[in-house]
Amino acid sequence: MSSILEADEEGVKLAASEIKAGRLVAFPTETVYGLGANGLNGEAVLNIFKVKGRPSDNPLILHIANKNDVKLLASDIPEYVYELIDKFWPGPLTVVLKAKDIIPKEVRAGLDTVGIRFPVNKIARDIIKSSGVPIAAPSANISGRPSPTNFEDCYNDLKDKDISVVRGGSTDIGIESTVLLCTDYPPRILRPGKVTAEDIAKLIGACDDFMESEAVEEAPRSPGQKYGHYMAKKKTILLDMLPGLADEVLYKINPNATFILSRDNRFEDENKIVLAKYDDPLEASKRYFHALRKADNMPGELIVVQAYSKEGIGKALFNRMIKSASGNVMEDVDEDWIW
Predict the structure, then answer these.
(1) How wide is the angle at C-alpha 58 spanned by C-alphas 52 and 59, nearest 5°?
(2) Which of 12, 108, 189, 292 has the maximum number of C-beta atoms within 10 A of its C-beta?
(3) Alpha helices, DSSP H only, in 205-264?
């Protein structure tokens, strides 16, 4: 069984000692809970892939506790990157840069680049600082499942893995960081998050935005690019339409379903989870992954999800929703859909 560490001074020291000893620790960040290992120890990093069941060509992100540490891990850093990290670090922005030789190939998935992030969450930063090494950490879930955004969901996924899990609260953002490829100019978003292309372009002049339809690279430079992610156990369908139109569809659906909806949907059902208002994707993002897990344990064989406004973080939420629905998206009320 996995052990539980409290998020106090003693718990942080124990977590750091586990990291230094080459073992795994799950801990909260402001985005989602992460499953961490010593990012300079390739053998320790391999255990992340084993515990999660994660494909070995899916690179990891290194988490640091001081923004200046980026210089120790990356080379050929463009000047605009320093503007970005001065503005957005600590925070939910990962920069992908040319990796120095000290970064194990297991972290980089054999690529010449590495993703680096400086998190806001105090527990995460204290563990990283106390361990004295960058911590490689993807989301702390079994690969393909929704990312955990509270201690209970994290522990339930990992309780049989014989690791340490730090008991923190619910995460502040609820979806993973923006991943930005910074090996050239303009930079390009590989995975959308709270920090948007508009935010970045406003600061440094330009940014190539994430494209949902963009072909997946054979060797992905960011987590979330290639494989199935964020999926419930049940089939999931995303209604990409305004709540009023979605209500027309909802009344036609096989009643053997659970619904994850906005406050603007008027459809009523006892198996309904309400996230937030349609035009509040930030609040919906905080709650979406937990809602998927909850829906898995409710009656019905199908999960039907209402999409949200794509403004700001809404684009990132939509990306997670599409992936959690395995591309099963309904965009028109008259679409001939076989439920």
Answers:
(1) 105
(2) 292
(3) 243-250
Q: How big is the CA angle at 138 (ends 132 and 139), to the nearest 5 degrees?
A: 120
* Distance between first and last Cα of the chain: 40
* Interacting residues of 217 by C-beta distance below 8 A, sequence separation 6+: 225, 226
Q: What single-letter amino acid sits at 321?
A: M
> Which residue, chain included where needed, has tokens 């909802």?
250
DSSP state of 38: E
What is the tens place of the pLDDT at every residue in 292-317?
999 999 998 999 999 999 999 999 99
Q: What is this structure's pTM?
A: 0.93
From edge to edge, which strands make up the β-sheet containing 302-306? 272-274, 257-261, 302-306, 235-239, 329-330
Task: Give yes or no for a contact between 125 and 65, defined as CB atoms under 8 angstroms apart.
Answer: yes
Nearest-angstrom CA–CA distance, 180 and 175: 15
Burial class of residue 182 (count of CB atoms within 10 Å of its CB; 0-12, 13-18, 19+):
buried
Judged by DSSP in three states, 183 sits in: coil
The conformation of residue 239, written as its DSSP 8-state character, comes to E
